[in-house]
Amino acid sequence: MKTKLLFLFMFFSIILSAQVTEVCNDQLDNDLDYLTDCADPDCEGGNCANAFPCQSTSELFQYFNGALRLWDGQNWNAIAGWSNPSSFDLNAMGYNILDGYIYGIERGNRRIVQVTRTGIQLYGSLQIPEDRNWHTGDMDMNGNLYISGTNETRMWVVNIADPSQIPVSVNFTGVPGSTLDCADWTYLPATNKLYGIRGNSSILRVMNLDGSHDQDITLTNMNCNNLTGAMFADASGNLYAFCNTGAFYQLSPNVDFTDFTVTQIANNNLNATGNDGAGCPLANGLSDECDCCEEVLRILREMQEGGSNPTTPKMKVLDKPLVEEKTQEKEKARLFQNTPNPFDENTTITYEILSDKVESASIFIFDMNGNMKNNFEVNPSTDGVLEISASTLSPGLYLYSLVVDGEIVDTKKMLILSN
Ligand SMILES: [Ca+2]
Ligand SMILES: [Ca+2]
Ligand SMILES: [Ca+2]
pTM value? Predict the structure, then answer.
């Protein structure tokens, strides 16, 4: 009876969640995935032909020598480009997850511009009394554009929903006598902080949104001998940086974001006279595919083999390798993407048990270093939902795996946002 009731609950909750769709033009995030209106690729009922919906893989919008280009985040090929007939000197730009457009400020004056698929247009006027040499900017998840310029000790916060408001001026605190001096900001959802590379390319400056200094991180293997003018981030916590001389880098974080490993991805040897970047900060990392689970697979394999770590649970030892090509045998269980994702309060992980011969089932939660953070035994004879509270884990990216009778059924990623 209990099983039946649970099943009925599951049935209704799946039906209910299937009914929630994103409405494109109501300024609400109807399906609670943090992407609002035209930023949400699933939205229905509005005209988003001019917008840039947040893709499941990362994309870089780069303003470069007077034109806008779009790079795909898989092969780093230029996949689209827009000329700039109105000759806006766009800079300090960021992607807005509240509407799917890019916003920036003209270098050297106070014009706020909006970038759409058909071009760049005037959006508003920055309500401050003087022109400044803007070249550093990105947007957070609440529609705020953070901008600063050359030799500044403060930045300004523009609420893009109402550009007629006077921007909040934020003083840079924490490093006496130092200027902000980064060529672009990048907002990272996993930490709720801004990141920028300082002129000499070896220092990654980390800023809190209130202007206070968080930390400076020394980067190794970053050989940009010019400014790093274009940056953006993805939901997995990776930063991407385009040097003004054309070298392109990925900066991958360690588990607590205190260090980043630099990898050069490409070099097109193009010299930029104006270079700024933007991208959807929730791209990547949220897809069904899990491409970063090697460490977790290793830990699970160790657990399967009995493991030397006394805290690892005992698992059934199989006489076949854990990691293998998917076979044609019948699926035993299925794991779904948690919703909402990312989250800052609670999230729900849904799973289905498809075989009546399953003896044990667990959901494991790992950090990105493969440390097991939680282990939930679940009922092996019924479908179910597991609710996770963000308060039980630190903000950041995690992996969760469904293990049935000692076999990993699937592993997915979830992101806990910092409040
Ligand atoms: Ca909506
Ligand atoms: Ca949405
Ligand atoms: Ca930017």
Answer: 0.76
